[in-house]
Amino acid sequence: MIEKVYQVTMTNDKTVERIVDDEHVNINHMVLIKDTGLPVHVSNSNVYMVIVRGAMTIGLDDEPANLHQAGEILAIPFNTKMEVANQHDEVLEFFVLKSPNPKDMPPVKQI
């Protein structure tokens, strides 16, 4: 078998899991329930968020927060302040792809 197979947790509970962490890419899988989110942080690589279920409220740098729905892919540049939350009843599920792998990137700005 040539391909490598990775598993993600199929759940409706809050989950943050690293799926792939190799020399090419870093892929995380996240599930957020209503009124939960990620700590405010700065993107440590070029980030692509693939929303597969629910709605994401995301504030970037000092801009007002925007609402994004399942089926959207967000491209967020390196060194951008991020605040990600689920403010809705439906479970939010998304994948975060970082390329290049953050371990190959320079330090991020302080917030």
TrEMBL record:
GO molecular function terms listed in the Swiss-Prot or TrEMBL record: isomerase activity
Keywords, in A-Z order: Isomerase
Full protein name: Mannose-6-phosphate isomerase, cupin superfamily
Annotated organism of origin: Anoxynatronum buryatiense
